[in-house]
Known about the structure:
23 strands; alpha+beta; 5-stranded antiparallel beta sheet; single chain
Amino acid sequence: WALAKSAKVAKVFVAPGNGGTAAAGGKIENVAIGHGKGDFAALVGFAQTQNVGLVVPGPEQPLVDGIADEFRKVGIPTFGPSAKAARVEGSKAFSKDFMKKHGIATAAYGNFTNYEQARAFIESASFDVVIKASGLAAGKGVLIPKTKSEALDALKSVMVDREFGSAGDEVVIEELLVGQEISVLTLSDGYTVTSFPAAQDHKRAYDNDEGPNTGGMGAYAPAPVATPELLKTIHETVLQPSIDGMRRDGFPFVGCLFTGFMLTADGPKVLEYNCRFGDPETEVVLPLLDDSCDLAEVFLAAAEGRLDAVPLCFKDGYAATVVMASEGYPGAYPKGRAITFEQPPENTQVFHAGTKGDGGAVVTSGGRVLTVTGVSDSLQGALDRAYSCVNTVKFEGGFYRSDIGFRAIEYLHKAAERKQGLSYADAGVDIDAGNRLVDLIKPIVKATRRSGTDSDIGGFGGVFDLKATGYKDPVLVSATDGVGTKLKIAHEMEIHDTVGIDLVAMQVNDIIVQGAEPLFFLDYYACGHLDVEATRDFVKGVADGCLQSGCALIGGETAEMPGL
Length: 564
């Protein structure tokens, strides 16, 4: 869908494809070749015959089996990891050891091929555990028991009863992490790292996060909990070190690294790596690509080792996606049920998963059947559009969650409530910069002390003792003035201290012509953004003017006004 938008792409072949790609028409065409290891030669031969210029392989099994290597052997650019690099998903034990080696934050764990040793680990563990079949188990090899007894039963089902076959020959037993999950899809050419907006999905089958775990029943992006500061931390402490570590260990990663994170009280920790795009996150981040962004160009640049030369750009706004599933999912489910489609609303897209063509019709062929996405300026708007589109699709026994995004909407409401108590920082005012300025100018101001004041600053006003001057029954003369046009010259020349002298001089002149002695001075300084060094220079000029005229600088106001 996204690749076909490229003006540089003439044809998108999908092997073997589904009902959606069969009915798409235009540039998209299904190819009746499977993606098992026995199909690799036929796939490569087809690509050579059709002069294919880019291959984007998936899902995980063919990548682990080495499909990307086969295309690269014959010189076809391939956006997907080698078999060695795909081990980060193919073996959970391997990926956990990789994270430990490279200092990437993850849960405490143990890897086991011996059932009795694994049992002993669970029995001695001081924390709740998660049990994972190390090999590929079609997204179903993760068990989250609630008690130690359940954990031992789960371990037996994997290692003894072989619920997941050879995928359970080795297990990872790790600490259960608590917090919110996010997923980050990252593109890499082995060096450069660039990511899609972070997404959050809903794993449980039913509303209110009830029912069995699934591959995901819906998602939204960008996830509000993934703040710019958090994403910067994730990039610097996980994503770039992961790509660098793989390259240094001899298996540079080219393709999409899909990383799951748990946002714990101790910071983000990696739950797992996937070595390819995954559902339903892909269907929620791709619609956020800016219209100017050519995804085929991006993938080709990564395959050719020049990802830093092509930007990955996104729209401002949100996307939300709702999975429509077959009754019985994630357990046994019926197949072959006809799907009817009405005209979808604007800014929505229906992506096919478990569907196939049946004559002129499209029928169900999997557990997760369709992924329905809406895009809008707001998250609530995106959710409303997605659900509006869901209502245009029908098939017998289909079900979906009606509360996708509820955590994010709640988070945004709470954030809005916190914002009602506006802080200086929210307004763009840097209090810390103001405090640094005061520390810098205290000695400068102190130098202007005279009889009547010590010129100690820190408040907004100043104190002056007239008695100390020796005047009897004095009359005070006051004046105020300002500088304007000269500020433009000061900014052009980046010389700020002389403005301060001028400011004092104009006031002092007004006092002297009244026949009075200048005693003390207070300044007022307003700016759009507080440049501490420039402001210090200005105050130094004020202090110099005070020294020259014999008056003391006893206080003032510095006002930072964003937008001024």
